[in-house]
Fold these 4 entries.
Entry 1:
Amino acid sequence: MWEFSLEKPDSDGSVILRSILDNQHYPYSFIAPYPNPTAEIDGPLVRGPFLLDRLTPDSFESITAGEAWNAIDVFLREWDPPATREELDIDALVGDVIDTADEIFRPKAFRS
């Protein structure tokens, strides 16, 4: 689990997102599967459908805890074979974080 220490704890979510996106470790620490940081890269650094250098706070939308849980459920149903949060103990892994978060963001491209 990642923890952050904020210099300005009263910052809004977009300021925090910008700090994460600007962090040199972002592609290696906050997005999986992890790219090889020593690999020669001929093109743009891509994770899923995103060019990482084009992600900005505006690339994300704020969602509720219920919407976050729904997105997880939809994602797991699309696995082959489908899975559930209970089978994978997802609630134990991230439940407290989702249920107590001040703000939750997801990339705008991932609407369920």
Note: The chain has a mean pLDDT of 75.
Entry 2:
Amino acid sequence: MKMCLVGVAALPVVLACSRDPTGPTTAIQFRLDPATCLNVGTPNLGLQLWIDSVFRSRAVVSVGEVSQPIPVEPGKHSAFAREDYPGGYTWPAQTVIVPQDSSRLVSLPC
């Protein structure tokens, strides 16, 4: 739900809108696939999370754990992850379609 504030000064009218922080978020999340990553050799893996070829976040995740949501505009996106160290593995990009006020999960197989 959008919340808008209207401020009236002596001259202009100011209109400011923001998203309700308690309402639904349009976002992408990442997860190391539990079916294929059980024996990765480390309990936590540092990842760089990329959406539409733009670095968006760093996360340290355990197998099966879901990353924090990364807000995106509704629509079609390309998402991938890279291990967070020089020469680390890069997962192939996946196309993700995210409807308004929903979240989509990018599963990262090992």
Note: DSSP finds no helices and nine strands in the chain.
Entry 3:
Amino acid sequence: MEELYGVCLGGNRQNYAGRDREGRILTTLPGDGRLMTKDCAESLCRVFRSRYPNVHVVELFRGDKDEVVAESLKNLGEHTGIEDLAQIVKECLAQGYSRAEIFATVHNAVQG
């Protein structure tokens, strides 16, 4: 049997169902929501935890849904800063910055 998961944002009628055209989070009823792998659901919970402290992974059932199961935040269309950072690091390497320069810059940013 296929193991499918979703994300509950913490309240009634609060299962994550994607985003609308303006980027607002859409929600739906318990038992429904955007289908994803457990790893993807856990990643989405980490992204939403500061905004939704009670966010948690929930099990979902496909039912009549004929949608592709999301395996990453990118599949969900969720924008994350860490993905941006990875892309920027690749661009810096391509521009000739040394690994030491990149590490030092990131380290200084983390240290404040």
Note: The longest helix spans residues 81-94.
Entry 4:
Amino acid sequence: MSPVSADLQIANNIDPAGGSAPVVMRNISAQTSPPDWDLLLPHREICMTGALKPEDANAFLETSRCLPSRELIAVVITVDPHAEDEAKAHWQTIIDHYSADG
């Protein structure tokens, strides 16, 4: 498993009063040197504003990876294993909502 690249908070736009969930991000790209995460993610909280259907996401990724002017950075975001139960439940709400929309 790749090392943790960043510790973040993810907020859910469907329930702004619900707070945010602590998450960890791991780089799963094939690149050898990590990107400048402070430049790419200047804020430590990310707000989920929508999701693409898997077919649309796949089409975007297929198109983007073929453009030499773009660099695709793939990451995996998971709930912080040390998060409290309430934060883990909030994370699960986010996952369930966007999984149902896909």
Note: The chain has a mean pLDDT of 77.
